[in-house]
Every structure is written in C-alpha cells, then in structure tokens.
Design goal:
This protein has about 350 residues and is of the alpha/beta class. The chain contains eleven helices and 14 strands. It has two domains: about 130 residues, 3-Layer(aba) Sandwich (Rossmann fold); about 180 residues, Methylesterase CheB, C-terminal domain (Rossmann fold, 3-Layer(aba) Sandwich). The chain has a seven-stranded parallel beta sheet with strand order 8-9-7-6-12-13-14, with helices on both faces. Keywords: Chemotaxis, Cytoplasm, Hydrolase, Phosphoprotein.
Length: about 350
C-alpha cells in the first residue's frame, strides 16, 4: 500500500526536524518535504503533490490561517494544524477548523509533552489522509429555522470528533433560545473547549457553555464537555445535572461519547434524542445503541456530509442509528425529534 505523503510546514527548523522524524517512524507515512514558511510551502505543494500538510499557525510573512484559506480556496486538501496550547492559539485553531482544517495537535512545550504530541501528530495525519475535504462552496447551505420547535422536556445529547467543529456550528446555528437542554462531547484538547463553547454561543440562539460539575440541565442551554481530564455524564439529582468524573479513557477517549450516551440512556431514557456526528473510530456507537434500546430517538450524520464517516458508520452498522441525515438538515431533524411530538 502506498505511503501517506506529508509536507511539514513550520518556521522552526527544530520543530520541522522533530515532526519529520516522528512521522517518518510511522511505517504508513513518508515526509516528502519540509518548508519554513507559506511561500516556500506553496511551491512544494505544487511540485510534490502531498496527501497531507501539517501547518504551523504562527509564522512570519503569512500566518497559517491566511495560508490555509488560500489552500482551501485554490487546492483543497487535508491539513493538520500544529498550534500552541494558549488561549490565542486555541482561538486561531478553532478558526482553522472552521475553514476546513481536518484536525489540530498541540505544539509541545516540555520534553514529556514532546513525545506525546509527536505520537499524536502521526495519528492525526493518518486520519486526515482518509478525510473528505470540501470547500465552503461545496457544503450544502444551512438555514436557521427556529419557529417549529415546541419544548417537550426532552434532552439532546451529541457526540463528535474529527470534523465536529464545523458540524456542531452548523447544528447549533439552527438551535433557538428555547432549545432542549443539550449535552455535547467533542474530542478536543483541554485548552480549546472553553473557547469552542464561546464560539458556539456566539453562533447559536441558545446559551452555550463549558459543562461544570453539578450544573442543572435547563431549556435553552447547551453544555460542552471539558477536554482532557474528565468524562461528562448526565445524572438525576434534584433534576437532571451534569457530572464530571475522572477515569481512564473509554473507547480510546476522555471525554468519551460512549460514557455520555450511556449516562443519558440510564438517566433520561425515552425522553432523549441522541446524535452521532463525523469522527474517526467507534466512540459513541455502543452508547447510542443503549440510548435507542432505552426508547430514545437517534440520528447519525450521513456519509456524504461527514469529514470522516467512522463514528456514524460504526453506530449505523450495529443498529444504533434510527435514521441518517445530512449535515445541512441534521440540526432541524434533532429539534423535530425533540419537539412536543408524542
């Protein structure tokens, strides 16, 4: 099988060398070139035709965001962003993911962090090579329709991974101020989730916030699982509440979509709607099946609109998905299922 051809773009010669060495250790990957700035990278993309580009955000002459915009407009291809784990870095990375970058990896700041981050970048590159990359012009338009939802007391739970930033923005743009209480687990670095919740809050009619332990689930509010250290669950305790629990990764992730969905199946049962979105792997499939078996309504993002049709496929194949829906209409489909319909 042909190796994944990668171009590394970073203004630091040291970082270029570290990333190149880490990627070349993976038997599925071959680094075909390394560029110190976007101008050099532009020529190398034309000459080398790589399958994936790793792109630093903070570079001289033209930053990674500006270069990514040009790539996605002129020659759409899988891009993995390499970002500093700072507040400013998080916000710029989220912008990159909105523009079409497949995924992001945090730039290491310590010797221990270097080994972990470099191992992660190879995994992200392998995922990116299988991703479906589309320009904004290719994406089906999403129109906010906020007049059809009637509150019913249902709870919505959503799980997503690679490609989830764009997908969740599209969905929550359709959510009204009166939306059902909604809990979300998106695979994302710990330092990014607060900025991501704030970005979703600006886009949605609902109030979106990072979940806190003990927070009461209320209509009109959306709760995003913090990245990294805990799982998000829904429990009954004087109402329905968020619970953040420490523990090992489940289905390869912390927070885990499976953990969230299983808790919703147990605490909410048939008064719930579950949605599984774009992402690599199987996280969420078994949990969504438990939700459906408990009487909840379930939807999955369809293959044509997924960046990576992994998690929705796994859920669909085991019978966890009641129906598959395109990204352009999945937000309204969730609201329809959660509406006062029964």
């Amino acid at each position: 099988m042909a190796k994944i051809r990668v171009l590394v773009v970073d203004d630091s010669a040291t970082m270029r060398g570290l990333i190149t060495a880490a990627l070349n250790r993976d038997p599925e990957i071959e680094v075909v070139g390394a560029a110190g700035d976007p101008f050099e990278a532009r020529g190398m993309i034309k000459a080398l035709n790589p399958d994936v580009v790793t792109l630093d955000i903070e570079m001289p002459n033209m930053n990674g965001i500006e270069f990514l915009e040009k790539i996605m407009r002129l020659r759409p291809m899988p891009v993995v962003m390499v970002s500093s784990l700072t507040q400013a870095g998080a916000e710029m990375t989220l912008r990159a993911l909105e523009l079409g970058a497949v995924d992001c990896v945090g730039k290491p700041t310590t010797a221990t962090g270097t080994a972990e981050a470099l191992a992660e970048v190879a995994e992200k590159v392998r995922t990116a090579a299988r991703a479906s990359v589309r320009t904004k012009a290719d994406a089906a338009p999403v129109t906010a329709r906020r007049g059809n939802y009637l509150p019913s007391g249902d709870v919505v739970s959503i799980g997503s991974s690679t490609g989830g930033v764009e997908a969740l923005l599209a969905i929550l743009t359709q959510f009204p101020e009166t939306c059902p209480p909604t809990v979300i687990t998106q695979h994302m670095p710990a330092t990014f989730t607060a900025s991501f919740a704030a970005r979703l809050d600006r886009a949605s009619g609902a109030k979106v916030q990072e979940a806190t332990d003990g927070a009461l689930l209320e209509p009109g509010k959306v709760y995003v699982a913090p990245g990294g250290a805990t799982h998000l669950e829904v429990v009954r305790s004087a109402g329905l509440r968020c619970r953040l629990t420490a523990g090992d990764p489940v289905s390869g992730h912390r927070p885990s979509v499976d953990v969230l969905f299983r808790s919703v199946a147990q605490a909410v049962g048939e008064k719930a709607v579950g949605a599984i979105l774009t992402g690599m792997g199987r996280d969420g499939a078994q949990g969504l099946l438990q939700m459906r078996q408990a009487g909840a309504r379930t939807v999955g993002q369809d293959e044509a609109s997924c960046v990576v049709y992994g998690m929705p496929r796994a859920a669909f194949e085991i019978g966890a998905v009641e129906k598959q829906v395109s990204l352009s209409s999945i937000g309204q489909s969730i609201l329809d299922l959660a509406s006062a319909r029964r």
